[in-house]
Amino acid sequence: MNGGVEVVGIKIDNVNMDEAAALMEEFLETDRCSMVFTPNSEILLTAVRDREFESILNSGHLVVPDGIGVVIASRFYGTPVKERVAGFDLMMRLMDMADSRGNSVYLLGGREGVAEEAAIKLTESYGNLRIAGTRNGYFEEDSENNIVNEINNSKADILLAALGAPKQEKFIYKHSDKLKVKIAMGVGGSLDVLAGKVKRAPEFYQKAGLEWFYRLVKEPRRIIRVLRIPKFIALAFYDAKLK
Q: Is residue 207 scored above 90 in pLDDT?
């Protein structure tokens, strides 16, 4: 952990965006599968109830605070994180690196056709980035070994797993010893954003840590998910007081 803080039992690396990107560039020079996780408040709440998931997040080689709730919670433990490191933005920094280095990426996840559309958008934006392969996120557990073989046979340097939490993190961890990629990153709904299926909040909301509010206005049915943010903050406050 890079001078980090433990929030509700999960070790969060205390890095800013540039530092996180620099670490991923180092990962691209190694021969191991480095696991990059980007938990927000909702994901950390899930980990509190799921000890296996908690252990998996704590095994990550880079775990960044994706969400204003995590940033606020870190202050209760006496080691505030430097800034929110949004998973989508970190993923795009990784794509910048991959393009400059000529690395290849495999896109796994989303509904039928989403990964392919995201791949088209990436190739339109990056001239040197190679799309090694794509696959949707609907598969049974008994297909996982075949998918891992497909990823390895593609010679991909990077795996972007958009399976939703905790499925994507559990998939990455379960197969990390077999995956031949240099970086495996859980990216949630980012392929939907790349494919143009979902629109990100305007920059003002992103910088103000109010992406959750923008999404709530656009999708009122998200209210149950949004209410988990204050629940998480209260849990973190109580947990920090017990330390």
A: no
- pLDDT at site 225: 78
**CATH architecture of the domain with range 5-242:** 3-Layer(aba) Sandwich (3.40)
Length of the chain: 243
The reported pTM is 0.94
Three-class secondary structure assignment of 48-84: HHCHHHHHHHHCCCEECCCCHHHHHHHHHCCCCCCCC
Rounded to an integer, the average pLDDT of 210-216 is 77
State how far the Cα of 69 lies from the Cα of 136, in Å rounded to an integer: 30
Assign 9 to helix, strand or coil: coil
Q: Are 133 and 118 in contact (CB under 8 A)?
A: no
pLDDT of residue 2: 61
What is the average pLDDT across 156-163? Answer: 98
Angle at 147 between CA 141 and CA 151, to 5 degrees: 150
The domains of the chain are located at: 5-242
- Inter-CA distances, 46 with 9, 10, 41, 209, Å: 12, 11, 9, 21
H runs (alpha helix) in 9-61: 17-27, 41-49, 51-58
Between CA 123 and CA 73 the distance in angstroms is 38
Residue 33 to residue 182: CA distance in whole angstroms: 5
- What are the percentages of helix, strand and coil residues in the chain, rounded to 5? 50, 15, 35
Give the DSSP per-residue string, 153-167: HTT-SEEEEES-TTH
pLDDT tens-digit map of 136-150: 999 999 999 999 999
Q: Say what the pLDDT of residue 164 is.
A: 96
